[in-house]
Amino acid sequence: MRISKNTGDASDSMNRFNLKKLRQELEGRKTDNIYRSCPEVLSRNGTRITVGDREYVNFSSNDYLGMAMSGNLSEAWQRGLQIWKCGSGASPLVTGLTAAHVSLQNFICEYLGVEAVILFSSGFAANQAVIKSFCPSGTTIYADRLSHASLQEAASMTGARLNRFLHNDPASLKRYLEKGGTGLIVTEGVFSMDGDEAPLAEIIELADTYGIPVLLDDAHGFGVHGHQGRGTVSAQGLRHSDFDVVTGTFGKAFGTGGAFVAGSRTIIDYMINFAREYIYSTHMPPAQAYATEFSMRYVSEHEELREILRDNVTLFKSLMAETNCRLVNSENSIQPLILGSSEKTTMMSEFLREHGIYAGAIRPPTVPRNTARIRLTITAAHTEEDIVLLTETIREAEKHL
Ligand SMILES: *Cc1c(COP(=O)(O)O)cnc(C)c1O
Question: Contact 107/239 with Cβ under 8 angstroms?
Fold first, then answer.
């Protein structure tokens, strides 16, 4: 291989990609203040993370209940490793489905009151699999405008039409449904960037009226919401069997990783036979399934985790009321500070960083233009002092920015 001598990429001269064009696009992102790169976390301890040469209080993790850092869970994972060793070694249809996976599936069926469940390596893959399985070309996906990228992206791959209805607006959904057609309604329980909840009963009613199935992704509701953490559906007094397909990730409140799809026996059997993301992918490691079942049982039995979380959110909101910052209508962990411009958001994020607080700046294209924000997540693992430090620092930042 030839290595070019100039300062460009190694092997520039033989690269068959159009690197010049790619670099121009990257430069454009820098100009627009939306260039991305991943911080390296050097160590973690509870809500503390070390990045570079500094320790921060982490207000940007989705570990809502602190499970990812829990000693109980890591011990369970180690027990799983002793029993099952490491990788699953194959896709589920070959020999990758173990009793550990089936036990987790059975637990979720009972927990949510659904007939059948399958597991995926990520929520992203689970959502893509559902949409690709049930929304072939010629159908329509009716998705809330603020739905997660994994839900919207699949549409472009199947050739289905994508109708994005106004956020949490059943009347807007109805206008699309009135035009006729088949397909799938897609919504989240708790929205990942705004922390607000979908009007699920109204969506179900429209689904019944127009005969269109519904996919609910409750990535941010499971574990933290409803009776025993059964999610937004339970919090709103509905049943999971009111929905046609439900997806959830284990990477957030449950503190492990991977995801599930739940539905009727037929829906799940269909996916086992047709969903390429399921068929052609190595199954999640069995120890991870074992640990996830432990976590879900633990989370369901420990109501006090949800109580601490609620108290922390209440404390945060009451302290924020003394600032000029506008909060959105969220009673959940997810508390965005919408600042508008990417520049202002970057400045706020840097100010917080200088004061020992790690909070993610979320900028377009992840969120709509002019809604750049600091996405704060309040968790059950934060202490009162952490939350006071956060709100005091935001107040201080208001004076400077
Ligand atoms: C995080 C998230 C996903 C993706 O789940 P992963 O397991 O992280 O891939 C899907 N949907 C929503 C709404 C999410 O917030």
Answer: no
Relative to beta strand 41-45, strand 183-188 is unpaired
HSE of 47, CA atoms in CB hemisphere, 13 A: 24
CATH 3.40.640.10 at 71-301, yes or no: yes
Q: Which residue, among 257, 140, 243, has the nearest Cα to 188 in the 3D structure? A: 243
**Integer Cα distance of 283 and 96 in angstroms:** 5
Question: In this structure, are residues 293 and 83 in contact, taking their beta carbons and an 8 Å threshold?
Answer: no
Q: How many CB atoms lie within 10 A of CB 319?
A: 17
Name the CA radius of gyration of the chain, rounded: 22
Query: Are 287 and 84 contacting, i.e. CB atoms less than 8 angstroms apart?
Result: yes
> 317 CB contacts (<8 Å, ≥6 apart)?
327, 335
- The single residue of 101, 132, 148, 225 carrying the catalytic annotation is 148
- E strand segments, 133-198: 140-144, 161-165, 183-188
49 in contact with ligand 1, CB cutoff 6 A: no
- Range(s) of the chain covered by CATH 3.40.640.10: 71-301
Find out whether the beta carbon of 219 lies less than 6 Å from any atom of ligand 1.
yes
Does pTM top 0.85 for this prediction? Answer: yes
Atom of ligand 1 nearest to the CA of 258: 7
Binning pLDDT at 50, 70 and 90, where does residue 293 land? very high
Tokens of 150: 């994994």
Residue in 61, 62, 163, 332 annotated catalytic? 62
pLDDT in tens, 137-147: 999 999 999 99
- Report the topology of domain 33-62+303-400: Aspartate Aminotransferase, domain 1 (3.90.1150)
Q: Which of 64, 127, 150, 367 to mutate to test the pocket of ligand 1 (most atoms within 8 A of CB)?
A: 150
Cα(398) to centroid(ligand 1), Å? 32
